[in-house]
């Protein structure tokens, strides 16, 4: 896994006196336990201890039609199918 971790990034941001954070969980295609717990609870608590406020998290791609269409196109290309809809 490439770094830095979110926890490390928060430490770095705090040491450079950043006060606000917006987390965009691009590593995940949908909200699930890791995004809901590790980011929204654990990382939020760390940010609070580091005086980073506000700490906000965007939603995952979940059921975005554009995202699903892009994934479908990638799959179709990989299996040699058509990628137009």
Describe the structure.
The protein has helices at 6-15, 33-49, 65-78; strands at residues 21-23, 55-57. It is mostly helical. The chain has one domain (6-78). Helix 1 (6-15) packs parallel to helix 2 (33-49). It is elongated and about 50 Å long.
Helical fraction:
40-55%
Tell me the major beta sheet.
Answer: 2 strands, parallel
User: How many angstroms separate the termini?
Assistant: 34 Å
SSE string: HEHEH
What would you call the quaternary organization? single chain
Strand order of the main beta sheet, please?
1-2
> Could you say which structural class the secondary elements and strand pairing correspond to?
mainly alpha
The low-confidence parts are none
The fraction of residues in strands falls at 5-15%
Any descriptors?
85 residues
Would you spell out the secondary-structure blueprint of this structure?
Elements: H1 6-15, E1 21-23, H2 33-49, E2 55-57, H3 65-78
Parallel strand pairs: 1-2
Helix pairs in contact: 1-2
In short:
This protein is mainly alpha-helical.
């Amino acid at each position: 896994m490439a770094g830095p971790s979110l926890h490390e990034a928060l430490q770095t941001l705090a040491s450079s006196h950043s006060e606000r954070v917006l987390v965009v969980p691009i590593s995940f295609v949908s909200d699930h336990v890791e995004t809901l717990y590790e980011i929204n609870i654990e990382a939020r608590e760390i940010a609070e201890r580091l005086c980073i406020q506000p700490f906000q998290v965007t939603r995952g791609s979940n059921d975005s039609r554009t995202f699903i269409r892009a994934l479908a196109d990638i799959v179709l290309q990989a299996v040699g199918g058509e990628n137009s809809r």
